[in-house]
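Researcher: I'd like a structural prediction for the single chain below. Treat it as a standalone chain; there are no partners to consider.
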Amino acid sequence: MKISTVALFFQYFIYIALCQAGRDFYKILGVPRSANLNQIKKAYRKLAKELHPDKHQDDKIAHEKFQDISAAYEVLSNQEKRRLYDKGEGPMVEPTVQPVVQAEASGAQDELKDDAVRLEIARAQEAKPCEQQNEGSPVESTVQPVVQAEESGAKADGGRLESRKEVMFGATWTAAHVSTLPPWLQENEFVLNGHRPPLFSFFDCFLSIFQIHSETGNIWSHLIAFYVMYLLTQWHMSSTSFNLELKIPFLPYFISALGCLGFSVVFHTLVCHSEWVSHLFRKLDHCGIAILITGSTISWLYYLFYCHSWLYVFYAVLCMSLGVRSAIQTIKGDLSTAHHRFTRSLVFILNGLSAVIPCLHYRYMYGIPEELMHSIHLLVIMAFFYITGALIYSCRVPERLMPGKFDTWFQSHQIFHVFVFIALVFFYRSLVFIAEYRLSTPC
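Model: Treating it as a single chain, here is the predicted structure.
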């Protein structure tokens, strides 16, 4: 079977997951379920315009100007601030006012200083003709030291500001502290710094894949895993060493694994877009976990009950029913939020452990030959990584023990992602062993 068939199955599963997880999608847009793509696009633009009346670019420019003006205002002395207040151009300040830039994140002060310095340089260049005529003006006394400091700093710094733009790939956002984020973005209160603010732009969200922030490890861990699984799927389905009996039953496993990893990458990329986009793709991410458990179990049960098709059909239908039920249970209501991560993990663990029932049934009815024990041992190792990763994710270790020390790398969610990929590899080996045994042993 060609890889295009696998892609077709994968797209079909994505469509089913979208219908399950985004049941209220049509309701939010206000269009019927029979609407075509153009009607959906038109409704989406209308909804976006209602939610954000101003243009996104204008809103970002206004926000950047506000930050520049605020930063420039804070570097002025109290005497200059009072002079601005007397003219009606600034707020009233007390003599004991401290700069607002004293944030918990040490990088925030540097960012505001850089913005303030740029603004003062621009003002100084515009005010040069006026300065020559009014040499004793208070503006010159304030701007000139800042300009001199910037020029001397630029020489000593070697162009740090320009290199920063190159490193950030033209980023239009500044990393934020968890306390400044809206509630729907406060996923983990033990990860303090390096968060992306609400971007309201799909382009900026996907551009942030190549930038360093609190979700970088979560995105790349499953993005690399997705690419490896895609290569494994392509190699397995196109290999001449396997016949159709070793290809077709593997499809549910490959499709569910690619779907789970793909949903995870998209969710962690778009989680900072907006509230409703974050909630939608969070539900898709949870739905992908249920699809992975169901698809993997169906592939393994096919070879376990290879000689007993009626038992396979019974347990396959039961497994799919449990998968759909667990997906609905986790994406419904508040159970999909971050505060219910332990309950959600418990639901998925119990769903995965339900595969023990057909194994016990087979052992009681027919016994388990020694040739199958190696495949079962690999399944036990797979279950260990799945359960351990889910518990680490639920307990949020190690960032719970040292808040702020794992803001970028080695968070519990990243460890969970790595354990999921390791478990997928062990399951593939287990599936290969039981498939080779069944095809070499007559019923």
